[in-house]
Amino acid sequence: MTHARGCYCPMAVALITTIWSPLSQSESYFNPAFLTDGTANVADLSRFEQGHQQAPGTYRVDVWRNDEFIGTLDIPFEAAEEDSPPPAGGLTPCITRAMLERMGVNVPAFPALATVAAGHCIPLKTAIPGSEIDFNFASLRLNISLPQVAMHNSARGYIPPDQWDQGIPAMLLNYSFSGNRGTDDDSYYLNLQSGLNYGAWRLRNTGSWRDTHSNGSRHTEWQNIGTWVQRTIIPLKSELVVGDSNTGNDVFDSVGFRGGRLYSSDSMYPDSMQGYAPTVRGIARTPAKVVIRQNGYVIYQSYVQAGAFAIADLNPTSSSGDLDVTVEENDSSQQRYTVPYSTVPLLQREGRLKYDLVAGDYRSGNRDQESPSFAQGTLIAGLTKGYTLYGGTQLAARYTALALGAGKNLGDWGALSLDITHARSQLADDSRHEGQSLRFLYAKSLNTLGTHLQLLGYRYSTTGFYTLDDVAWRTMERYQYGDDSDHDGVPDVQSYHNLAWNKKGRLQVNISQSLGDYGSVYLSGSEQTWWGNRDASVWYQLGYAGGIRGVSYSVSWSWNQAAEIGGTDNIVSLNVSVPFSLFTGQGFRRDSAWDRAWATASASRSRGGDTSVQTGISGTLLDQHNLSYSLTQGHNSHTGGSGSAGANWQATYGSLGAGYNYSRQQHDLNWQVSGGVVGHADGVTLSQPLGDTNVLIKAPGASGVSIENQTGVKTDWRGYAVMPYATVYRYNRVALNTNTMSTSTDIENNVSSVVPTKGALVRASFDTRIGVRALLTVNHASQPVPFGAVVRESKTGVTSMAGEDGQIYLSGLQLSGELLIQWGEGANAQCRAPYTLPEKSLQQAITLKEIRCD
């Protein structure tokens, strides 16, 4: 066996181009015999005589236009002309009209482009003066510089609709199951989101199942939260929804409906807002269960540890409208408050029209409300000088409302909008009312000062103003009870309404202030007052967070009060986290489990004098840091000693979590399981929880390969994986981590890019080579095959080039096959070499073998 001391194909080319250099203005000649000791043959290498030359052909390259990534494309390359500056590889790309249109060039503005047939190469520098092309062969990056005058007047980041991918036919299922087994009660919650994609159409259904056991009684309920069909209307830059959904909340409060909706899609426009979802904050005095309801439906349920918490992963498609938050403490006490969800000031770019049309029946999850038919239409128009005008109407048999408003961009002073709504209502007792509501919204980011007024709003309503939601109530006054009961058998009060107390004033605020090296402070809250009632529903949270040398600390104060429900409480909380790396003196290293562990401490005190102190440790484990854990021990003035243990594993096929909490009176074991299932033409793929829009990765045979920037995501045994939460109408980079590939796996290109439409499952395919990596020494007529000979495996089509002493490197080989080796023209300049490799070659990093070519 001859050991590898020669060079592979790229090394051979580098050696040729390094030795050769032009000695005069005339064409120079390099004798290929210099590459050997004079006894071996050399193949025809004439194509490398002109310096850094690469073979013409189609290459997959990353295309950048004016320093903006366009995509990864297969582009034909030709040999560069002799009178042009030699680019990398000596190649020039074949630029077509279609490529220029994709890059946003105003093709009709250049007469020279109109004469070029489709698919033919364009002399870019001649056709568009001022343009430049730079090709880096080593990194396979093509940089194209185009003058601004040649471009369409579109915003940066805009992607033409003909590049949007509607995705593949697929069946989707998202599931989330959580359970709790306690000393006195048990509860289980299952949320299912299923769907079917075909072309541009998306069929979706969301439902939930709850099962509670308490004080010897049991309640089980299935709720169909919504079923709907939706699709994109690309020419209108709009979305169509038919079925159960929610209205927009730009002009009127968001309400649920069953019917049809056609509305402008902001995400189809460049540099526009991608939507807004509220962050639900709170303070748990003990390990607690957080339940979030919207329109009577439970849309979120999870378990949190003691201390301040923030829930920022609510699904924006189901989180329009106010959120009713319940924090069920481990000691059976509860906190209840409402988090308002309203938009920032209603501003649109100049010339932009945004519309929203709805027709259907009012729909909520509350049995005490009717389902009146209604129609709603809103229009927002962007005008010159930073002004925006908007308005709309709501029409029903017992309700009529008209709204008008305006917004203004104040530059350094932020942005604001002001609108007024006039409504006529007929309530459950057939009484008729008429009134107005005035709303003010303001937002400002003082970047130089680190101040962000994310949302500041106030609404004032007269005594006769009611909303469509008010008109839907069957009774003038009633308590709404939950399914759970306290330990004394008294049902929990979930909400209360009294139409005699129509809304008067509503203030909402969300402000954060950066203090530089000294941390940051934030204030979030809302306050609702009513006519005819002195009490108010109030929720505020003020917090400060900072850190030094890896030690983080925070102080939070929360005050909430629900009118006529109770549960008023003030809570102050302190949290400290100290990394274990602080004690090692070696700095922070993410590759060490010790340095990814923290000592934690928290303390809280309520207005009633209840105090709670918790200490513990937390951290992450595994190579991808996708297993988190926490252990705490503490004391509560109400329940005595307490403790908890919990872990969460973000695995390939889903997320798993488990926890145990105990106190003197209560023991609880809770768990959470969530994930996704995707059915497609190539089979079924399990995944982590799916987003609204997802990417199916197809790399046949490449099992166990991690996906870059996706914690815990890797291909299954067939080479498939799902990358959740793709960004719609934007380039999404999908990359395989080649360091996690097995020794028998090679891939042509590990990076792909996709542009999905809303709700799509798009496919990112990768060409894989599954087989043996081998360095073969091939002899022909008792001599090594000529240096530079072209090699092709007859079954798989794998190609390579012969190096010194007939050594050939190939990947993706089958255990047996045949090589076709050619070093010139004619039958006398080629041979065939059958080979057979041992079974153990599949587990070896590289296999060495000598074979004969006849």
Automatic annotation (TrEMBL):
It is a multi-pass membrane protein. Residues 775-839 form the PapC-like C-terminal domain. Keywords: Cell outer membrane, Fimbrium biogenesis, Membrane, Signal, Transmembrane, Transmembrane beta strand, Transport. PROSITE patterns: FIMBRIAL_USHER. Residues 29-178 form the PapC N-terminal domain. It is found in: Cell outer membrane. The keyword Transmembrane applies. The keyword S-adenosyl-L-methionine does not apply. NCBIfam families: PRK15193.1, PRK15198.1. Belongs to the fimbrial export usher family. This is Fimbrial biogenesis usher protein. It comes from Leclercia tamurae. The lineage of its organism: Bacteria, Pseudomonadati, Pseudomonadota, Gammaproteobacteria, Enterobacterales.
